[in-house]
Amino acid sequence: VSREPFSPSETFTVFQNGFTSRPKDPDASWLPTIFTEFVVTEFIKHRGPSTESRRGVELGPGAVKAAGLLTRLHRLGCRVHDFGDLSFTSVPDDEIYNNRILNPRSVGRANQELAEAVDRAVSAGHSCVTVGGDHSLAIGSISGHARKCPDLCVLWVDAHADINTPLTTSSGNLHGQPVSFLLRELRDKVPLLPGFSWVKPCLSGPDLVYLGLRDVDPPEHFILKNYDIQYFSMRDIDRLGIQKVMERTLDQLVGKRQRPIHFSFDIDAFDPTLAPATGTPVMGGLSYREGMYISEEIHNTGLLSAVDLVEVNPLLAASDEVKATARLAVDVIASCFGQTREGAHAVYERLPGPGSPDESDSQERARI
């Protein structure tokens, strides 16, 4: 499916997704916030269990919103269509699968609902932003995106490959496995989990590029090496520089044919000195400049169709560190939609002169 390039003033949808596959108090409500300003986003509320002892990632969307995401997008001239609220209900007595995989039915059902919502948004011609929550949500966001855009490609920016299978994971956490459910090449390596019968692999190895890897498990490394998946570790970024890495990335993904890009960004791709409020920080990550360059180059392709921003965890850092991490997330998203380090300047019809009408008469058309 060929899509027309997107402009900064294009209408797009932001799903605020508090979904996580980590364990939490099943009686606690997940309370993301309703976006009601010029840019209107989805309100997604989730109640249910998860799979890791450290809680808080479900609060990430609220922190990102509080950091000024709406205001920033408003200043960029973005318009957002509100597709309504999504809510996820956990499955009672969600038993561990194969003595290993935690909460498969709840995670599967939530991702199925998210996939349907993303499908609706993209089918309506909007770019779709999903704010998590943990990275297990990519099962739903990419699956839903692929229903409308089966030729999509994925840029996955993360300290981790998240490509363990249910048979290779040592933790049982589904947020470390989403890519394995999406790759056609791993179809015969991934067992059918309860709640996952709807998932259909929608990517091939050449459709995926990783950036920022620096904590990869042995089975994941085997998959990357043997299944034709392009990846750039932090060592590669140090060696080549971010400009060359992005040139090679975009050549791989859209060099031969233009197609929609799904940009899936885990905040732990950044160095923990920049993004301390996240669940699995790894030293030696992206600098601010490298992260912004990646997002800017994705925007410059004109092919961005969907964005995931995940793993901001407000309970794992001091207040000022949480705010810094959330502001960083806002910068990533804003750079995807036209913010540049030259400034996001309004485009005017003309400059006022001494004899011209008041400056306010100049029509502000868009922001770049």
Automatic annotation (TrEMBL):
<dbReference type="InterPro" id="IPR020855">
    <property type="entry name" value="Ureohydrolase_Mn_BS"/>
</dbReference>
<protein>
    <recommendedName>
        <fullName>Arginase</fullName>
        <ecNumber>3.5.3.1</ecNumber>
    </recommendedName>
</protein>
<dbReference type="GO" id="GO:0004053">
    <property type="term" value="F:arginase activity"/>
</dbReference>
<feature type="region of interest" description="Disordered">
    <location>
        <begin position="348"/>
        <end position="368"/>
    </location>
</feature>
<dbReference type="GO" id="GO:0046872">
    <property type="term" value="F:metal ion binding"/>
</dbReference>
<keyword id="KW-0378">Hydrolase</keyword>
<comment type="similarity">
    <text>Belongs to the arginase family.</text>
</comment>
<dbReference type="InterPro" id="IPR014033">
    <property type="entry name" value="Arginase"/>
</dbReference>
<comment type="subunit">
    <text>Homotrimer.</text>
</comment>
<dbReference type="Pfam" id="PF00491">
    <property type="entry name" value="Arginase"/>
</dbReference>
<comment type="pathway">
    <text>Nitrogen metabolism; urea cycle; L-ornithine and urea from L-arginine: step 1/1.</text>
</comment>
<dbReference type="GO" id="GO:0000050">
    <property type="term" value="P:urea cycle"/>
</dbReference>
<keyword id="KW-0056">Arginine metabolism</keyword>
<keyword id="KW-0835">Urea cycle</keyword>
<keyword id="KW-0464">Manganese</keyword>
<dbReference type="InterPro" id="IPR006035">
    <property type="entry name" value="Ureohydrolase"/>
</dbReference>
<dbReference type="InterPro" id="IPR023696">
    <property type="entry name" value="Ureohydrolase_dom_sf"/>
</dbReference>
<dbReference type="GO" id="GO:0010121">
    <property type="term" value="P:L-arginine catabolic process to proline via ornithine"/>
</dbReference>
<keyword id="KW-0479">Metal-binding</keyword>
